[in-house]
């Protein structure tokens, strides 16, 4: 069984980096997702006892003091950190500048879907999967 500090890749593409004991996450460790976010936690026999989730852009989730996109404050996280753009320049997504999606295609988060070809490619036009 795995023990000590290690790096473990899960079948989902997520991976764990941290302490292991008897084949389980145990101690300080971080579960990193293929999309870029991650959960940094203190683990006890595979169960997180305390931790924080951070989104890809660095925004940390806080269950008790979560005020992001709550209906009263609709700013993107980058606007909270860097301020608003000058009048007349709209920011339509958190990522600034946003990814360029060809007309007639749909953003999938990891790339875009073209309904004519029924293919999903990444933002650099590299094939990801068939739809």
UniProtKB/TrEMBL annotation:
Compartment list: Cell projection, Cilium, Flagellum
A GO CC term assigned to this protein in UniProt: motile cilium
Keywords (A to Z) from UniProt: Cell projection, Cilium, Flagellum
SUPFAM superfamilies: Histone H3 K4-specific methyltransferase SET7/9 N-terminal domain (SSF82185)
Keyword match Secreted: no
Name of the protein in question: MORN5 protein
The species this protein was found in: Promerops cafer (Cape sugarbird)
